[in-house]
Model the fold of this input.
Amino acid sequence: MTRVFSGIQPSGNLHLGSLLGAVRNWVTGLGESDALYCVVDLHALTLRPDPATLRSDTIRVAQALMACGLDPEQCTLFVQSHVPQHVELGWIMECTASFGELNRMVQFKDKSDRAEFVSAGLFTYPALQASDILLYDTDEVPVGADQRQHIELTRDLAIRFNNRYGDTFVVPQHAIPPTGSRVMDLQNPGVKMSKSADAAAGTIELLEDLKSVEKKFKRAITDSESEVRYDVEAKPGISNLLEILGGATGRKPADLANDYSQYGRLKVDAADAVIELLRPIQQRFAELEGDPAETARLLSIGGEKAQSMAEQTMVRTRDALGLLPR
Done:
């Protein structure tokens, strides 16, 4: 079976962009691949989170993933820091990547421009992300369009290492979902929906009150025209609503545009579709939240399985580099 890997940071609540851009596609693919999904808590350290918040957010994100349909019996669900091989291979990938490659990463430039403190980890985290993927002989990485540059770097590092030391790593492919892959802010459709505090008015959280969800869609920014058309450049607000509705219903945004002659109706239908999508997720999350010990047990099982797989890769890697066997 095709090996699939992807990860998600435990920084705040999951939002609609996370669901439609990634998690829903992960769930759809269960049973069709050998899938590993990781809560990447080590990546979250670049943001200097409060320790108690990081601990609780890691559990909450894992519970949210399970509430969305990621069944630990059908995939390997684990926490990054539970598998020490991620850090070991991360250092090797730092030694394989060039300064210039890391310096050209668009997300680093964006985040560092907005941060008062820029950690070395923020600069090198694409190398750790490459190790996350390469540890598991990953064939495909389902990601949004904004992560494509990181997957291309991972491919380059795997190929470079293989050319230097012999075939060691599987060279992965990125897999961008056809709909809902880029969900934008409802109040500022020129930027992605995010977890940041200043984007709260335009972000739909997975666990948000459903009445609040409805209100946010009613207030979504559109434009001064009246034609419903899928055109990301000319009509970003309307295109975003069509993307969201398409992601929630499985239809193509351009096809959906033919069904509407009024902006108001589109907003109502997009809100209704998202609410129906979120309702069972919120109900299941409430059940999981009541038993955090069971969540910890399931993550421990996933971590043991992931660590066993990762160590097989590290044995090959250490041997290829000439490191002494343990």
Summary: The two ends are 31 Å apart (CA to CA). The mean pLDDT is 92. The longest helix spans residues 292-321.
